[in-house]
Amino acid sequence: MNEGKEEARPPRCSGCGALLQTEDPGRTGYVPEAALSREPVICQRCFRIKNYNEASTVSLDQDEFLRLLSGIGEKDALVIHIVDLFDFEGSLISGLQRFVGSNPVILAVNKCDLLPKVTNWNRLRNWVQQRAKELGLRTAEIILCSAKRNQGFDRLLDTVSALRGSRDVYVVGATNVGKSTLINRLISDYSDLEQELTVSRYPGTTLGTVSIPLDDGHFIVDTPGIVYPWRYSELVDRRDLDAVMPSQPLKPASYQLNEGQTLFFGALGRFDFVQGPHQSFTCHISGSLKIHRTKLERADSLYAEHRGGLLTPPQGEAAAKLPEWQRHEFRIPKGSRSDVFISGLGWIKVNSQEGAVVAVHVPKGIKVLVRPSLI
Questions:
Q1: Are the C-beta atoms of residues 284 and 250 closer than 8 Å to each other?
Q2: Could you tell me if 173 and 83 are in contact, meaning their C-beta atoms sit under 8 angstroms apart?
Q3: Phi and psi dihedrals of 292, rounded to 5?
Q4: Model pTM score
Q5: What CATH class is the domain 54-227?
Q6: Residue 232 is inside which H or E element, if any?
Q7: C-beta separation of 253 from 282 below 8 A
Q8: Alpha carbon 322 to chain centroid, angstroms
Q9: Rounded to the nearest 10 degrees, how much is the dihedral formed by the CA atoms of 43, 45, 49, 54?
């Protein structure tokens, strides 16, 4: 009999309340085994905030993240939603509006440094505003920024000051969008962390957030990054991330194609020009990813024979682990200015307004869509 005995409960972080684990530094509650003997025990993310004034990125899957968001609409909060311009539709939390209610949302669009210097920034801002609206998100302000170049952050901080009032600030976003850089900048500008890090646990939310005290008694609430499985950044082997995610400004590559021609993006995806007059297509993808042109009639055999060799990345076991490819066909109407967007890989701009039928082959589950041209 076990009468009088209590079942041992998994230890929790004394800072954020997350269940502690020692296996995965990228998930909530991670703590090195050597630190488990300390009192009190706090996870690595809380430790870095407390001791180094620096947040690190952890992640949650989609269902866990949505449960975490469920209580924000009941609070008086300012929400900063940070997205990746290179993967805009893939990193935007399209269902965010129903969780935040009437609370104001600042949309911080990161990685703007990847676009060519000749970009019309007013047009870009209007494009972001329209796409966010079409995807169901109302914004109080849109800030174009670059965490890497430290551009736009002063304007973001000014906007936070203007809209925050007596609210707590929630920062939300997908993985790999630059959220930790934004959090660290907010910490350095707003929070006095010479005092002991304290954490406020809010009713109605999943434990795993970290609440960073501000000087006026309110908090910056750092939420884990949401994992969206339809993005290449969540699918490819970590060794191939550098090839997929650009770190330098994009150098658009234009191809004059006849119908019946194909472009391979390494062995990660392919673009078929199925039908239409001779025309130009411009690829906006990482410069580290090689593009190979061939005839559509040879595309299947070329992929079967040269995946992991001529067509790379990925290669070796990483290539074998990718899901089976799925074909997506689109009819681009005459007179439209359109991009064929592939989440996490980039986009192909259809330059002609003569119309075209195109197809995209990518691993099953990757988000592919047609949208109004970004540039």
A1: yes
A2: yes
A3: -120, 130
A4: 0.81
A5: alpha beta
A6: helix 232-235
A7: yes
A8: 20
A9: 160
Q: Taking each helix axis from N to C terminus, what angle separates 153-164 and 179-190, rounded to the nearest 10 degrees?
A: 60
* CA-based nearest residue to 42, from 17, 25, 10: 17
Helix (H) or strand (E) holding 52: helix 44-52
Q: What is d(CA 317, CA 279) in angstroms, rounded to the nearest whole number?
A: 37
Per the CB < 8 A criterion, the answer to whether 257 and 281 are in contact is: yes
Side by side, the strands of the sheet bearing 261-265 are 291-295, 261-265, 269-275, 356-363, 325-332
Tokens 């609070």, located at residue: 75
* pLDDT, position 195: 33
What's residue 200's pLDDT?
29
For the chain, domain boundaries: 54-227, 234-372
C-beta atoms surrounding 256 within 10 Å: 10
Which residue is listed with tokens 């965490």?
A: 147
pLDDT tens profile 155-176: 998 998 899 888 999 999 888 8
- DSSP-assigned states of every residue in 141-202: EEEE-BTTTTBSHHHHHHHHHHHHTT-EEEEEEBTTSSHHHHHHHHHHHH--TTSPP--PPP
List pLDDT tens digits, range 224-243.
Answer: 778 888 999 888 887 788 88
How far is 276 from 323, CA to CA, in rounded Å? 30
Residue with tokens 């997205």: 83
Determine the Cα–Cα distance for residues 369 and 26; give it in Å rounded to an integer.
29
Sheet holding 338-342, edge to edge: 253-257, 279-284, 346-350, 338-342, 368-372
Cβ-Cβ contacts under 8 Å for 280 (sequence gap 6 or more): 254, 255, 256, 257, 351, 352
Strand partners, 331: 357
What Cα–Cα distance (Å) separates residue 8 from each residue in 1, 36, 85?
16, 16, 46
Three-state secondary-structure class, residue 36: helix
State both tokens at 3. 């009468």
Burial environment of residue 315 by CB neighbours within 10 A (0 to 12, 13 to 18, 19 or more): middle
In the chain, which residues have pLDDT < 50? 1-7, 192-207
pLDDT at 190: 64
- Cβ(265)–Cβ(325) below 8 Å: no
**What pLDDT sits at residue 58?**
61
